[in-house]
Predict the structure.
Amino acid sequence: MQNRIHLHLLSDSTGETLENIAKAALAQFDEVETHKHFWPMVRSEAHLDRILVDIAAHPGLVLFTLVNLSIRQKLEERCKTLGLPAVAALDAVTDALSGILGQQAKARPGRQHALDAAYFARVDAIQYTIAHDDGLNHHEWEEADIVLAGVSRTSKTPTSIYLANRGYKTANIPVVPESPPPETLYRLKHPLVVGLVTSADRLIHVRRNRLLSLNQAPDTDYVDEEKVKAEILYARRIYADNGWPVIDVTRRSIEESAAAIINLYNERRTAGGDKGQTL
């Protein structure tokens, strides 16, 4: 069994899409030592010739997203000669869309990165989210798409940033018993407000590591078990009283939490789900 592989990623654009595809596929395998050879902006045969030298020297799997027919053919022919698999990562999806839509795909490198309205909306969302982190500018929360509430160290900020990169204006607010949230939070109409929770054990562990990283005493009320449990209960009571959906982030990655939040947002926009559900 082979657990070491050279992976060549060739793209005629930034290669971001190809990297994500490769990452998702590799996640399905355990203990694989991967040597990635990343080749973005491949738009000439001269550039491809230089890459083919490296591919021959380090044989492995070749993944590509290339729309130029002559460059594609040259790559595929050379890989066939070398006895290496060459996979066009988007062809199956593009062909399926072409069949359903009844039109040919536009062979334009980097078309998905065009500076269209969606791009500028995403930039706007990122700027908004940074300006409304950790309870800032609560008088502007009505402009948000999503507002995240949670006790300290429940991944509010990284989840907000991830959502912003998906185009959602996101604000977040810490839930602290000694400093209740502003009344603005309870009067919001437009944003989806989501409560984040986690287990007390995980929260104590994360907080203690945070204190250690700051060279602070690891035994304070911030990590006291009874106080942490009371803090979580206080947050849950607020969520329940306001009928906000709750996301338990205990065993979720940032991406998984964000995906659950986006599902709630989409359900709210269409039919409207159970406001008090916990995911």
The CA atoms of residues 265 and 271 lie 10 Å apart.
